[in-house]
């Protein structure tokens, strides 16, 4: 059997925090379209996170991104929830790069005051079902179904 030569995909690794409060609600942030290079999706909701930088661990990335995007500094615990390929691709020159997202469920020590970065224009706490629906723009169906069942 002969295999066709296939071009390997290029991906960046992102770490995302699915932050849940004491009521079981999930924190979502509305993306600031003016800060994105790809506006084609329109405004959408996401969870805090970002790409792993050279020399950083997953935990360092998670804590840094959560603090930068929300002001939250006290996470009681975080556990790996899932790893997915994002529906969104990042423009790079004439091509695009895929995103592999490691998602961690984060429990808070206390309900925080949220301080948004310029990457986002709004935040809100949603039930798992609401969050599941809103995250379908960026995340595959098997992951959004998992959120609905939290």
User: Level of helix content?
Assistant: 10-25%
Total separate domains: 1
The coarse overall form would be globular
Low-confidence stretches: none
Number of helices: 3
Short description:
With 150 residues, the chain is α+β, with helices and mostly antiparallel strands. Helix content is 19%, strand content 37%.
Protein architecture, described:
The chain is α+β, with helices and mostly antiparallel strands. It has a single domain, classed as Nucleoside Triphosphate Pyrophosphohydrolase, CATH 3.90.79. It has 3 helices and 8 strands, in the order ββββαββββαα. Strands 1, 4, 5, 6 and 7 form a 5-stranded mixed β-sheet that branches. The protein has a 3-stranded antiparallel β-sheet with strand order 3-2-8. Strand 6 (90-92) and strand 7 (95-108) form a beta hairpin. The longest helix has 13 residues, at 58-70. The mean pLDDT is 88.
Entry keywords:
150 residues, alpha+beta, Nucleoside Triphosphate Pyrophosphohydrolase, five-stranded mixed sheet, three-stranded antiparallel sheet, 3 helices, 8 strands, 19% helix, globular
List the helices and strands and how they pair.
Elements: E1 11-20, E2 26-31, E3 45-46, E4 49-51, H1 58-70, E5 75-85, E6 90-92, E7 95-108, E8 120-126, H2 128-134, H3 141-148
Parallel strand pairs: 1-7
Antiparallel strand pairs: 1-4, 2-3, 2-8, 5-7, 6-7
């Amino acid at each position: 059997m002969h295999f066709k030569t296939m071009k390997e995909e290029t991906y960046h690794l992102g770490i995302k925090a699915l932050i849940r409060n004491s009521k079981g609600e999930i924190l979502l942030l509305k993306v600031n379209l003016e800060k994105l290079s790809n506006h084609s999706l329109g405004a959408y909701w996401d969870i805090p996170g970002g790409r792993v930088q050279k020399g950083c661990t997953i935990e360092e990335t998670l804590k840094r991104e959560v603090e930068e995007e929300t002001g939250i500094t006290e996470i009681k615990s975080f556990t790996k929830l899932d790893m997915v390929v994002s529906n969104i691709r990042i423009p790079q020159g004439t091509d695009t790069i895929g995103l592999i997202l490691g998602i961690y469920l984060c429990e808070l020590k206390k309900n925080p005051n949220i301080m948004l970065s310029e990457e986002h224009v709004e935040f809100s706490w949603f039930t798992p079902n609401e969050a599941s629906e809103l995250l379908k723009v960026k995340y595959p169906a098997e992951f959004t179904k998992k959120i609905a069942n939290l």
